[in-house]
Amino acid sequence: MEEKKSSGMFAVFAALGANVLVAISKFIGFGLSGSAAMLNESIHSVVDCGNQILLLFGDRRSRQASTNLHQFGEARAKYFFSMIVATFLFFGGGVIGVMEAYDKLVHPAHSVENAGIVIGILLIGMAIEGSSLRVAFKEISELNTEKLPIFKFLHESRHSEILVIFAEDLCAIIGLLLALLGTVLTMVTGNPIFDAISGLLIGFLLMAAAIFLTREFYSLIVGERVTDSDLEKILTAFDRPEVERVINVKTVHLGPTEILIAAKIDLVSKLVLEDYEIINQIEAEIRKKISDKKCYIYIEIDEFVQGYVQSSDL
């Protein structure tokens, strides 16, 4: 359990349990009311359940040991399955929801029955989703060791699963509020168009969230360097008298907690220690400074040539 908490996966289990309960209640509500917004919310919860199962499968794949084919392991599998989750959220939750709501919008003859029961189910759903969102906030607090503003942390974090869960839970709360508003307005005015509009807005909300997640996961799949704080820690490990100049440092995240570091350095002409001893000490210092990550480090000794184009990382 502690391993799951530290990796952000506990929030996935919490979200899965919450969405199973919410999906059942929403389908009961849709069956009793015929509400377009409730149908969209039901579809949304089913998609979310499937998404959490995909995230759990991706986490399992990411733990596979290295092989001759995948010599750095499969840690980036989390990013691949997170991208699939974003795709399902767009088409399974957003597009289908918009289509259903649009059909109700152009054919406003449908009615919302048992509105009181629907409102009760929506309020229960908000309480359940709220508890799941609180777990996500707790996970973020544990992972956000530098105490960054939450949206900056989510943008810079390499933990794709926590970004998915936070986005899904936040959209679920907003979606339930929209469904509640549409139901209340329909009940007060007797006009079902408000129910259809709320369903339409929920669909657009899910599509927007999916587009945002897709952009983030594309960047992670292609390969992002370490965060600014981790890069600074890496560079300080080279700050020693034996190192004349750091010529180049390049990094890439192989997964949320696995990084590849490649560096080229110029050593001073007269050394007390052997080259390999200096390299070993630098590698040990890097691993000590970023002990929360598994590091693959490759350092090359070279002579600096004036005019050499250095990495933008520096």
Automatic annotation (TrEMBL):
It comes from Lactococcus lactis subsp. lactis (strain IL1403). Residues 12-220 form the Cation efflux protein transmembrane domain. It comes from the Bacteria. Keywords: Membrane, Transmembrane, Transmembrane helix, Transport. This is Cation transporter. One of its GO terms (cellular component) is membrane. The gene is yogJ. GO terms for biological process: zinc ion transport. GO terms for molecular function: monoatomic cation transmembrane transporter activity.
